[in-house]
């Protein structure tokens, strides 16, 4: 199978360091459109959709492979291999893609130069007293039950929650539309892989320098999660964005661009 077609890979620009963008659950590469324009003249930018998301080849979706985030990390590595990328890649991930990018960097450390992680969470579940991911297991089970029973209602509920107050209106609508358009069978597998993953034990194995972009008020990844990651990732830089929501690349892209520019410089 052609990996570039499978993952709907798009390459913008022919020269410069490589930025590889990875979208979050229920989203697509289109979510990065407010950020990529800022780096069009300086970087070669790679965008893609995970199998089952966006305009990927949905016939390639394997529920066994993608029941674990390592299956998505393998997608990332296969895309890089298909493009002939061997080193120097800066991975830019949002939400669950932050964990996926870390897993890919552990698997192929020489491929990645740096990681830029927006709204990361190695585990969404609370594990008191040492770790508060933001959710109790029954809360997430309830969310998945709602997804099974009423996919559209689930999407209409989750969109505004993810957008937060910084993303009221247009961003919430964009997210809701994206969640609604996701194949329910795919969404169920990806959601379970996302919300019940626990990648805390993987953090010591990440060797890439990492920029953590934490939202100040985030319903999905509380401030303490960013602080936890900063404490457990060697060579990490934590930057708190003055954003209430989980999607600064949509609601406040200038803040993301400025932080990336400063870090990449």
Task: Give a structural overview.
The protein is an alpha/beta fold. The chain has one domain: Alpha/Beta hydrolase fold, catalytic domain (Rossmann fold). It has 11 helices and 7 strands. A 7-stranded mixed β-sheet has the order 1-3-2-4-5-6-7, with helices on both faces. The N and C termini lie far apart (38 Å). The model has no long low-confidence stretch (mean pLDDT 97).
Give the count of helical stretches: 11
CATH uppermost class = Alpha Beta
Low-confidence region ranges: none
* Head-to-tail CA distance between termini: 38 Å
Count of structural domains: 1
Give the SSE order as H and E letters: HEEHEHEHEHHHHEHEHH
Examine the coordinates and then state which fold CATH places here, giving the name of the CATH topology: Rossmann fold
Category by helix and strand content: alpha/beta
Brief descriptors of the model:
Rossmann fold, single chain, 11 helices, alpha/beta, globular, seven-stranded mixed β-sheet, 265 residues
Write the layout of secondary structure elements.
Blueprint: H1 3-6, E1 10-12, E2 18-22, H2 33-36, E3 44-47, H3 69-82, E4 89-94, H4 96-107, E5 112-118, H5 137-149, H6 151-163, H7 170-181, H8 184-195, E6 210-217, H9 223-232, E7 236-244, H10 248-251, H11 253-264
Parallel strand pairs: 2-3, 2-4, 4-5, 5-6, 6-7
Antiparallel strand pairs: 1-3
Helix pairs in contact: 3-4, 5-6, 5-8, 6-7
């Amino acid at each position: 199978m052609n990996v570039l077609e499978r993952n709907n890979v798009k390459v913008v620009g022919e020269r410069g360091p490589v930025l590889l963008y990875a979208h979050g659950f229920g989203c697509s590469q289109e979510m990065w459109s407010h950020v990529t324009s800022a780096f069009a003249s300086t970087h070669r930018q790679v965008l893609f959709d995970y199998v089952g998301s966006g305009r990927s080849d949905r016939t390639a979706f394997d529920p066994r492979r993608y029941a674990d985030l390592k299956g998505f990390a393998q997608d990332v590595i296969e895309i890089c291999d298909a493009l002939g990328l061997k080193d120097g890649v800066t991975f830019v991930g949002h939400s669950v893609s932050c964990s996926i990018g870390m897993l890919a960097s552990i698997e192929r450390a020489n491929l990645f130069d740096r990681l830029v992680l927006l709204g990361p969470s190695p585990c969404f579940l609370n594990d008191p007293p040492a770790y508060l991911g933001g959710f109790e297991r029954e809360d997430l089970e309830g969310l998945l039950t709602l997804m099974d029973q009423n996919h559209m209602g689930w999407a209409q509920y989750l969109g505004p929650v993810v957008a937060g107050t910084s993303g009221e209106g247009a961003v919430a609508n964009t997210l809701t539309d994206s969640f609604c358009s996701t194949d329910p069978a795919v969404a169920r597998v990806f959601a379970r892989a996302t919300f019940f993953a626990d990648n805390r034990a993987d953090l010591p194995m990440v060797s890439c320098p990492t920029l953590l972009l934490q939202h100040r008020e985030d319903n999905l990844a509380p401030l303490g999660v960013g602080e936890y990651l900063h404490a457990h990732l060697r060579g990490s830089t934590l930057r708190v964005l003055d954003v209430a929501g989980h999607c600064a690349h949509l609601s406040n892209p200038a803040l993301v661009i400025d932080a990336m520019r400063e870090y990449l410089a």
